[in-house]
Amino acid sequence: MRAARALSRIGWRRGEVVADLARRTAGVVHSIEQDGTVRLVRPGEPAWTADPQQLRAATRAEVMSLKVATANHRWGLR
Question: Is 52 within 8 Å of 36 (Cβ atoms)?
Fold first, then answer.
């Protein structure tokens, strides 16, 4: 139910963890572009933009995956 509510929201907040359905990966919202696309970042990877219609709230597993990626990047483990 939570994901369905997230899809109906108009925008995403900076720092929120979301799942990009097109890329099949989770990322952190960095900014919202002028045209409405969302700029996402993930540690150790280049930033990318996504269509807000292709985003949903991240699951707990996706959030943990992002936390592990952050820790690995911080410690130089890839």
Answer: yes
Q: Which amino acid is at 13?
A: R
Label residue 50 exposed, middle or buried (CB < 10 Å: 0-12, 13-18, 19+).
Answer: buried
The pTM score is: 0.78
Across 38-46, average pLDDT: 93
* CA atoms of 3 and 70, how far apart (whole Å): 24
Q: What's the first-to-final CA gap in the chain, in angstroms?
A: 34
Q: 74 CB contacts (<8 Å, ≥6 apart)?
A: 43
Q: What is the pLDDT of residues 10-21, one digit of tens each?
A: 578 999 999 999
